[in-house]
Amino acid sequence: MIEIAFLGGTIGPMELMVVLTAVLLLFGSDRLPDLARRIGRFMSQLHEASDEVRRQVLNPPENHLPGPTSKLPAQPGPADTTPEAPHDRVG
């Protein structure tokens, strides 16, 4: 006998038959293939999105914000305020 774990409990073959019968009665045999396709597409998109999140968490992209290692133009600080020597003197 096969049992499926679901929300801390198990679903046996009899419960599974009841659920499938209820789905068939609710949606009808004409709409069931379309419903299955939609659920399949949704599961595929959910799987792709979870893979993308997992990739981003495990391999974060390079830091795009300016930080200490970025190549910004040098700004004069307190140490860079020495006066320049005159260039017109001939020595």
Key attributes of the depicted protein:
single chain, 91 residues, mainly alpha
Tell me, what's the shape?
A: rod-shaped
Low-confidence residue ranges = none
The spatial strand order of the largest sheet comes to 1-2
> How many strands, which pairing sense, and closed or not: the largest β-sheet?
2 strands, antiparallel
Helix content: 40-55%
Instruction: Please state roughly what percent of the residues sit in beta strands, choosing from under 5%, 5-15%, 15-25%, 25-35%, 35-45% or over 45%.
Output: 5-15%
Please state the structural category. mainly alpha
Mean pLDDT: 77
Backbone CA Rg: 33 Å
Tally of DSSP β-strands: 2
Describe the overall structure:
By secondary structure, this protein is mostly helical. The chain has a domain at 4-61. It contains one helix and two strands; from the N terminus they run ββα. It has a two-stranded antiparallel ribbon with strand order 1-2. A hairpin with a 2-residue loop joins strand 1 (4-6) and strand 2.
What is the topological layout?
Layout: E1 4-6, E2 9-11, H1 13-58
Provide a compact summary of the structure.
With 91 residues, the chain is mainly alpha-helical. The protein is 51% helix and 7% strand.
